[in-house]
Specification:
The protein is of the alpha+beta class and about 600 residues long. It is about 40% helix and about 15% strand. The strands form 3 sheets. It has a 6-stranded antiparallel beta sheet. The protein has a 6-stranded antiparallel beta sheet with strand order 4-5-6-7-11-12, covered by helices on one side. The chain has a 5-stranded parallel beta sheet with strand order 15-14-13-16-17, with helices on both faces.
Length: about 600
């Protein structure tokens, strides 16, 4: 895992720019640094050594007039190596990616299994090629300069080239979704390359194309065959994701997904569980029992002593953009502890998406809407949990989905959003534009919801959360469930095979293949999330909360300065926005 940067521009340029940009990504690659320059292009790389720890794997990597900077892991690089002609200079997947691109061009992307973001500069054609993996596991930002282009693994290096104006519409989107949705960022002119896309730039012109898409199809196989094939695919995904020349760890929450990965992992893996402050969320005992059953070494990380102001600062620093999922703090704390033992860890991201694990994949989304609930929601103060609950039950379709997936409901947003957003609305003034872009009315409801998750919540929230929080501590995290072959198979099955419509029990097929491997009763415990007790901490730091609300109201971002009945993520999202604005908006 690494950090990559690049600057392609005609004319004079600051020769130290690429060094400054690359140094800002030291946390993504503390093991070594490399810079490559030509008359028109500068590329930078920070390396976290995972495969072939020798200097043969150093980047930028140049062969036959093409220069690569690469971030990620391609798990099938060994097989691809056998297909490519000529001798290799290293044992890295990086060299395989470069050779594969030289031989197949953009078609090479369909051959890569894993997670990646990379750039190739062609010295002969003076063309830049950028690409990002199918699900957006690895990030890639870019901005256009005067006649050129710059890119980086995070936004911060691009700000070294000059700070653009803040995009206030992106901050409004942040309050809607809890993140700034792709391709936007909080800065005008800085963009995220979408998952499963590549960008080609030459002589000031560029094109962006999709190279892979998740197909909405049904294969019609029965349950027994589905279980057999799923078993093979999960085992393959975990095995291939475990390729490493350094020790391997595992995020073990105590839930179904990480338990499944643990059950397929080698005995040498080190499991880590976060013990939260609230005993009702603590799954460390169950995780300990599972490790004892499987013969795995287990570490419990104490998350009880947390300095809230310091935690807010740390997350704002780690994420660049405002990011409102409070579970990011949990991942940050756990990653800090894991990084003291290993450089690579597996995690269960994607499991809820492909196995229908969220509430909105079942009865909560499919039950009929209620007019009475709608009346009651309007009688209650909008910014309260009961009003939010009633509003959800009064809606249907994309509006109900948004009421679950967004930080605030539509009614709450109409009450909350301040006047600063009045002149920055989307042209159609549609708060749900990001969801609507991927909402497929032609699909059955459960599959429609799953489709939206895959294209919005998964890349922009879950995968962003894990990447930034783990790489802040130089830890590479791999999600085996996001093997594209496993995803394509699982999403082709009838939703009822995954989620029982009668009992609303989720992940039925996954449970079937792992239950014999796990301790008795392990799968019968309720789902518990990865969030922390933000509201309780705020009650202990009331001045921090009140001052944040006052500043947000004074500057027109919210209408109210006295709010008491918020969820954990609502509180966290406003605290993060306040601190982000203080760091990034001089007039705030």
């Amino acid at each position: 895992m690494c950090g990559i940067t690049g600057l392609v521009t005609p004319g004079d340029k600051d020769p130290a720019s690429i060094e400054r940009m690359t140094e800002l990504l030291r946390h993504r690659g503390p093991d070594s640094s490399g810079i490559w320059r030509s008359e028109k292009a500068h590329l930078g790389h920070r390396r976290l050594s995972i495969l072939d720890l020798s200097s043969a794997g150093a980047q930028p990597m140049r062969q036959n007039g093409q220069v690569l900077v690469y971030n990620g892991e391609v798990y099938n690089f060994g097989e691809l190596r056998q297909e490519l002609s000529g001798e290799f200079q290293s044992q890295t997947d990086s060299e395989v990616v470069l050779r594969c691109f030289r031989e197949f061009g953009p078609d090479c992307l369909g051959k890569l299994h894993g997670m990646f973001a990379f750039a190739v500069w062609d010295e002969a054609t003076e063309e830049l090629f950028l690409a990002r993996d199918r699900f957006g596991i690895k990030p890639l930002y870019y901005r256009f300069t005067d006649g050129g282009i710059a890119f980086a693994s995070e936004a911060a290096p691009l700000l070294e080239l000059g700070r653009p104006e803040i995009d206030v519409s992106a901050l409004r989107d942040y309050l809607v979704y809890g993140y700034v949705p792709t391709p936007k960022t909080p800065w005008k002119g800085i963009f995220k390359l979408p998952a499963a896309h590549f960008l080609r730039w030459k002589s000031g012109d560029h094109t962006i194309e999709r190279y892979w898409r998740l197909e909405a199809r049904q294969n019609g196989i029965d349950r027994l065959q589905a279980v057999e094939e799923l078993d093979v695919l999960v085992e393959q995904a975990v095995r291939e994701s475990s390729v490493s020349d350094v020790p391997l760890g595992l995020f073990l929450s105590g839930g179904v997904d990480s338990g499944a990965i643990a059950s397929y992992s080698a005995k040498s893996i080190l499991a880590f569980t976060l013990r939260p402050p609230e005993t009702h969320r603590d799954e460390s005992d169950a995780a300990t029992a599972l490790c004892g059953h499987l013969g795995l070494k287990h570490h419990v990380v104490n998350g009880k002593s947390i300095d809230l102001p310091a935690a807010v600062d740390a997350i704002v620093s780690a994420f660049d953009e405002p990011f409102g999922d409070s579970a990011g703090l949990s991942v940050w704390l756990l990653s800090r502890a894991i990084s003291e033992h290993v450089k690579v860890a597996l995690s269960g991201e994607g499991g809820d998406e492909i196995f229908y694990g969220y509430r909105w994949h079942g009865r909560a989304m499919t039950e009929p809407s209620s007019r009475l609930a709608g009346v009651l929601s309007k009688l209650l103060p909008a910014l309260t949990k009961p009003a939010r609950s009633y509003e959800r039950r009064s809606l249907e379709g994309i509006e109900r989905y948004a009421a679950f997936a967004c930080t605030f409901t539509l009614a709450q947003l109409n009450r909350l959003l301040g006047p600063v957003f009045g002149s920055t609305a989307q042209p159609q003034d549609d708060l749900l534009w990001h969801f609507r872009k991927y909402w497929r009315e032609d699909l059955p409801l459960q599959q429609r919801v799953q489709w939206a998750d895959f294209h919005t919540y998964l890349p922009d929230d879950l995968l962003t959360k894990v990447d930034r929080a783990s790489m802040a501590w130089s830890l590479e995290v791999r999600p085996p469930f996001l093997d594209h072959r496993l995803v394509e198979f699982s999403t082709s099955l009838d939703a009822h095979l995954h989620r029982d419509p009668a009992t609303d029990k989720s992940k039925m097929l996954l449970r079937s293949i792992i239950e014999p491997k796990l301790p008795d009763g392990y799968l019968n415990r309720p789902k518990r999330g990865f969030n922390l007790a933000i509201r309780r901490w705020v009650s202990e730091h009331s001045d921090l909360w009140k001052e944040a609300l006052n500043r947000l109201q004074t500057h027109g971002f919210i209408r109210l300065s006295h709010i008491t009945d918020f969820t954990n993520d609502q509180v966290w999202s406003l605290l993060i926005l306040d601190r982000w604005l203080a760091r990034n908006m001089p007039s705030y």
